[in-house]
Design brief:
single chain, alpha+beta, Jelly Rolls, seven-stranded antiparallel sheet, 9 helices, 34% helix, binds 2-oxoglutaric acid, binds fe (ii) ion
Length: 267
């Protein structure tokens, strides 16, 4: 076993490393008067919504762009067609979503740190037998700061892959407490959780699993340190756009990001 693995098996060392990492983040003071509700919701629950962020027509236009790129610019992960860095292919999406200054500011006000929008993802999910939904099942995106905006371009119901979130699982305390329920031998650094672990964590910690169904044009703002997944699709399709924000010090130059998430080939 490597030293790194031994350290990650010890949750107390892991927690100390997280606290240290957090203490280094640059802080600044709020500047937005608007969107107080969203900021409060994300703080307490881990996520929030802005309804009617896009009109139905804007959603249809952007879904059609995603559809047109499938087979040309997407990478396919099971039932999930992903178009990475879609802002580089499409100036309409870039202008309407990627370049939205208000969205970056809401994120900065919530995270209290300078954020850079790393990339925008366009995705179409389709129903397929045994699909795991968007993101491949329950997970945290990270144990350190992670913040995302997901724009629903389709009406999202229980059936076509709604975002699901364990409310209040994003706080440092909840992250630490959840580590207690990891099965013995499961590395603290492993971000993936089984359904059984989610059931155990939510019942023992008294946390509620929330399914976020919403009409098209709704925008979800989420601290994706919290436990979440895209629910497996039972029927239909879901089109969505996701903005990935990172703190300044985690920003990867575009060449590196694009190399990792090369969008030129289907898998
Ligand atoms: O699209 C969603 O509903 C969630 C996706 C997700 O969690 C991810 O890609 O990390
Ligand atoms: Fe995720």
């Amino acid at each position: 076993m490597k030293l790194r693995d031994i350290l990650f098996l010890n949750r107390y060392i892991f927690i100390a490393a997280l606290i240290f990492n957090d203490s280094k983040a640059k802080k600044f003071v709020n500047r937005l008067e608007s969107h107080q509700k969203q900021r409060d919701d994300i703080r307490t629950l881990g996520f929030s919504m802005i309804e009617g962020f896009f009109t139905a027509e804007e959603c249809d236009t952007m879904s059609q762009f995603i559809e047109d790129y499938i087979g040309v610019h997407d990478r396919k992960f099971a039932n999930d067609h992903r178009i990475y860095s879609i802002q580089k292919l499409n100036s309409y999406i870039k202008e309407k979503f990627h370049d939205s200054e208000i969205l970056r500011q809401i994120g900065e006000d919530y995270t209290q740190t300078h954020l850079i929008l790393q990339s925008t993802l366009g995705a179409k999910l389709v129903e397929e037998a045994g699909n795991k939904g968007s993101g491949g099942g329950w997970h945290r995106d990270s144990h350190t700061l992670q913040y995302k905006n997901i724009a629903y371009l389709s009406d999202v119901t229980e059936e076509n892959g709604p975002f699901e979130y364990v409310a209040q699982s994003h706080t440092k305390q909840a992250i630490f407490d959840a580590l207690k329920y990891r099965p013995p031998g499961k590395n603290c650094h492993n971000y993936r959780f089984t359904q059984q672990e989610i059931d155990e964590i939510s019942s023992k910690m008294g946390l509620e699993v929330v399914t976020v169904c919403a009409p098209k044009g709704s925008l979800l703002l989420a601290d994706t340190r919290g436990l979440h997944r895209g629910k497996p699709l039972i029927k239909g399709v879901r089109y969505a756009l996701t903005n990935y924000f990172v703190p300044e010090d985690l920003f990867q130059p575009e060449e590196i990001f694009d190399e990792v998430y090369s969008h030129s080939k289907n898998q």
